[in-house]
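Reviewer 2 asked us to include a model.

Predict the structure of this chain.
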Amino acid sequence: MPHEHYQACIDACNTCASACNHCAAACLREDGVADLRECIRLDIDCAEACRFAAAYMARGSEFAPDACALCADVCDACAEECERHDMEHCRECAAACQRCADECRRMRGAAPTQPPARRPGRPPA
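Predicted model (structure tokens):
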């Protein structure tokens, strides 16, 4: 099954998405929520990027490595923002984001190489 090759990264992405969702919700309950807008925005973006990458890997998509590259970049940005805040949920989110970014980069480098699928209506490369 294609997803078995990616399972560790899929797990890291799902864990990170959950941590980001928790962090965003917790930030919304903090005093001074206006100061946490960027953190909340990045939490939401990161959770979506993680789910996107996990879905591509689960399907064994030829675009999974590219989805993981995007996911790693968004995770880095989210981790950096969360590290600016002194709340436990932000620290936990930053750690999950860093693990996910590292796993996505590792997976991208170890992804099986396959020629791109030929799509109808497109000339061969």
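Residues 113-119 have pLDDT under 50 and may be disordered. The chain has one domain: 2-110. We have added this to the supplementary material.
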